[in-house]
Amino acid sequence: MGYSNKQSRGKKTIKNSALKVFLRDIILFGIALNVFALFHHVLPRKLQPVDVSRYTNSTPVPATQNSSNAATELSAATPTLTATPVPGDFSASFPTMDTGTNALYSYQTDTVRIAINRVQENSVTYFVADVYVKNIQALKTAFAKGKYGKNIYDFPLTTANENQAVFAVTGDYYSARSQGIVVRNGTLYRDVPNTDICVLYNDGEIKTYDSANFNLTDATARGIWQSWSFGPPLLDDNGGKLSEFNSTLTDRHPRSAIGYYAPGHYCFVVVDGRQKDYSIGMNLTELSALFESLGCKQAYNFDGGATAVMIFQGNVINQPYKGGRESGDIIYFN
To answer: Which pLDDT score is estimated for 57?
Structure first.
């Protein structure tokens, strides 16, 4: 009996020890996963631009408007970290008159003309900014805290003020993701396509692509000034509205988007939403129809929800959902 009890106790001790080791390993594994997630998904990480030389091509892609010189000079240049853009000059089409007559907000200079109006209809409130630039370099982008990287955020108004922006809208919230083409102010920061892409070329044209039909080498040869990866595109190739979209967020939400008329002429739309007594937001079908009615040739959806913010002269002029939130980037003019 004594021997049997000792043997039984010994077996229990071994089992308990094995269980403790097993539990310890699970806990340590869980801690390791949390540490990895913390560093990879939460903590800010400053990153470096991509070496654009891997995308230079000795045979530039033919471009429209005045981009042929840009493609030739870019492909012949010595490769550097950044693609040196040849600025698009839109002096010939830049308005000589004040475009802000009767607008809610107006900003008129010799290089930028901005007219902003608010529309309230069908329980929706949205803002449309009509923008002309004389030179492509007037359409700028900025990263939160002035740094490119993962999980780097700030309030859009702060980022706008740090860059002396007169007008700004939120962009694609690139810093929340590890994929998506990112070119800002002519510099290639990320070259991993994963979704619908919007490209503003040096010649002023905006084109949208799905990732399967986008060639970074060809686009780089033509000359990219800005690119965004969020989407979806909102118009077909003929400027017509769409009824099907590459997105799961098709219901009514606050929205932010860019529209393209012609080189040097763009518009930005911010739709307030999720506020029953003020604005219910737009679904993608409604947003697409809006850009068609505005006469745009291309349009592209940015990050929306609480991110959707429009700023003018140091103030947020729309009414963001729950007061807005931090974001990774803005598009701005000054």
So the answer is: 58
> Which pTM does this prediction carry?
0.79
* CA–CA separation, 71 and 65 (whole Å): 12
Residue 124 pairs in a beta bridge with 121
| Length reported for the chain | 334
Structure-block tokens of residue 127: 């803002």
DSSP state of 244: -
Instruction: Show the tokens assigned to 112.
Output: 């930028």
Q: What is the DSSP string of 295-326?
A: T-SEEEE---GGG--EEETTEE-S--GGG---
In which order are the strands placed within the sheet that holds 140-143?
A: 140-143, 329-333, 167-170, 310-312, 315-316
Residues 306-318 have a mean pLDDT of 98
* Distance from the first to the final alpha carbon of the chain: 91
Q: How many CA atoms lie within 13 A of 218 on its CB side?
A: 8
Give the pLDDT band (50/70/90) at residue 7. low
